[in-house]
Design goal:
alpha+beta; 2 domains; two-stranded antiparallel sheet; globular
């Protein structure tokens, strides 16, 4: 089996509804192979893409007006925590992944997402 041969594709849709001041008021997402491609609403998104040619990271960070600070704290905590796991899986660098996870834990405590020890 050729691991470089595309055997399946999925289209990911992100739809952002803006108000007259270009502030996001509705964010929806979906995937063609999930839930029949139906869009689901969310309050925030953080997308990072690594450009193949320019070797640079492109980011899209959006949140709706209804996103509360405590929800943003939770979103950031969960994102930081998952990034440490992603980094470990991609690089096998356990030492740095653990440092990232420690910072995520610290962030979670400072924002009171997780109880202080």
């Amino acid at each position: 089996m050729d691991h470089n041969e595309i055997t399946k594709s999925s289209d990911i849709t992100l739809r952002v509804g803006l108000n007259a001041e270009n502030v996001p008021i509705k964010i929806e997402w979906g995937a063609s192979d999930r839930n029949n491609g139906l869009l689901e609403e969310c309050k925030a998104m953080a997308v990072a893409l690594f450009d193949k040619e320019h070797r640079d990271t492109l980011r899209i960070d959006l949140w709706t007006k209804e996103m509360q600070v405590i929800e943003m704290d939770r979103f950031m905590y969960q994102t930081l925590k998952s990034l440490s796991q992603t980094y470990l899986k991609a690089t096998q660098n356990k030492e740095l992944a653990e440092e990232m996870a420690r910072f995520a834990h610290f962030f979670g405590q400072k924002t009171e997402i997780i109880p202080a020890e």
